[in-house]
Automatic annotation (TrEMBL):
<dbReference type="GO" id="GO:0004488">
    <property type="term" value="F:methylenetetrahydrofolate dehydrogenase (NADP+) activity"/>
</dbReference>
<dbReference type="GO" id="GO:0004477">
    <property type="term" value="F:methenyltetrahydrofolate cyclohydrolase activity"/>
</dbReference>
<keyword id="KW-0028">Amino-acid biosynthesis</keyword>
<protein>
    <recommendedName>
        <fullName>Bifunctional protein FolD</fullName>
        <ecNumber>1.5.1.5</ecNumber>
        <ecNumber>3.5.4.9</ecNumber>
    </recommendedName>
</protein>
<feature type="domain" description="Tetrahydrofolate dehydrogenase/cyclohydrolase NAD(P)-binding">
    <location>
        <begin position="138"/>
        <end position="288"/>
    </location>
</feature>
<feature type="binding site">
    <location>
        <position position="234"/>
    </location>
    <ligand>
        <name>NADP(+)</name>
    </ligand>
</feature>
<dbReference type="InterPro" id="IPR036291">
    <property type="entry name" value="NAD(P)-bd_dom_sf"/>
</dbReference>
<dbReference type="GO" id="GO:0000105">
    <property type="term" value="P:L-histidine biosynthetic process"/>
</dbReference>
<dbReference type="InterPro" id="IPR000672">
    <property type="entry name" value="THF_DH/CycHdrlase"/>
</dbReference>
<keyword id="KW-0486">Methionine biosynthesis</keyword>
<keyword id="KW-0378">Hydrolase</keyword>
<dbReference type="GO" id="GO:0035999">
    <property type="term" value="P:tetrahydrofolate interconversion"/>
</dbReference>
<comment type="similarity">
    <text>Belongs to the tetrahydrofolate dehydrogenase/cyclohydrolase family.</text>
</comment>
<keyword id="KW-0554">One-carbon metabolism</keyword>
<feature type="binding site">
    <location>
        <begin position="164"/>
        <end position="166"/>
    </location>
    <ligand>
        <name>NADP(+)</name>
    </ligand>
</feature>
<keyword id="KW-0560">Oxidoreductase</keyword>
<comment type="subunit">
    <text>Homodimer.</text>
</comment>
Amino acid sequence: MTTIIDGNAVAEEIRSGLTDAIDALEDAGVKPGLATVLMSDDPASQTYVSMKQRDCEEVGIEAFDYELDPDTPADELYSLVDDLNADDDVHGILVQMPVPDHVDDRTVLRRIDPAKDVDGFHPENVGRLVAGDARFKPCTPHGVQKLLASVDVETEGADVVVVGRSDIVGKPMANLLIQKADDGNATVTVCHSRTKDLAAKTREADIVVAAVGVPELITGDMLSEDTVVIDVGVNRVDADNEKGYKLVGDVEFDSAKEKASAITPVPGGVGPMTRAMLLWNTVKAAAEAEGVDVDLP
Ligand code: NDP
């Protein structure tokens, strides 16, 4: 029987596990704080940011909300980041991507104090992760590791195919899985749009992580029996319903489920974990900044 990996349930476990750490911080007079910066009128970005703020409030993290008009000069965004870097109540800073074209996203990411970079995208944190000394693991791939652990899938010695090589999902996912660590030690193949025969690669895999952004690219016939399938993709496709669209992943769920030993659904798989791991990183940032020992779930 195929296990449907319940991301909502695992995310809830992470959130409730974080409350002990948040209580320990409170005992030490510290309230973790996350600043979110939104510089976009894209409804999806606005929804993501408001969900992150709501998550913070639910677990006892202070959410500092900054919204800049998309026409704001880039320098104003950079000086806001400088102010947040200097603000002791702010332990984590998240600038919601994408930013408008006149803002260089790499400059923004480099401007954030690496100790407050709870997305884990600053080059210092990327380097630390690759070197096996991660400070903040990027939220989505870290969430994938937690999902695999939740259903006792061992990565040690497993052949993992990561489809996608973005800086926010594919690359950090591969880097985490090759680390000499209990949740690493995998043999990882990274595929992308220039990969010659994607199906040949995915058929060899014990675990497939799809982070492509192409609706239902990975189909059941591209998988071997008993593959573990993690679908990171979130794609809107037209649907005959009230909204006019529905969300689908990068994996064709129905055909893949026939082959998989375990599979994440979309929605309700990786998405809730990305949000939970942002809280995790924020609590870690607060504990490290304030020198408080906490146990993280
Ligand atoms: P990007 O667009 O940055 O990267 C997509 C990657 O997929 C690229 O490496 C690209 O290759 C590769 N790719 C594209 N088409 C193909 C193909 N036909 N065959 C093989 N590889 C292909 O996307 P992201 O990594 O940012 O996001 C991927 C998906 O995950 C999206 O649907 C996004 O919405 C979702 N997402 C979900 C999150 C969550 O919390 N659930 C969080 C972040 C993202 P190349 O490099 O050659 O162009």
